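ESCALATION

Customer reports they have been waiting on this structure for their group meeting. Please prioritize. Original submission:
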Amino acid sequence: MEGKEVFLTMEMTDQEFDVLDELYFVQPFEFLISEVELDTDEIKEALKGLLDKKYIKCFETVDEEVFEQDLDFENKYAEYYYLATKAGLLAHNLS
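Update from on-call: job pushed to the front of the queue and completed.
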């Protein structure tokens, strides 16, 4: 990609791995609460880490992606839907 530095780190926490494991399809935050054995704050922290690594994307609805310039993770994380990116799937499968 011209003009953009892209890097891929395969490192992730156990919590990030567990959350990413549920994001092969678009899922709401409430789904993660019911499926991942972590508390809400731990899920939020894992999602933030995955987002910072570009391992997940956020969506307003199942079909409507939230682009980086419009993202308000701190205030709306519980309202978003989430999906693993290609980089996230690769990192997850290599872990």
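Sent to customer with the following note: Strands lie at 27-28, 56-59, 65-66, 81-84.
Escalation resolved.
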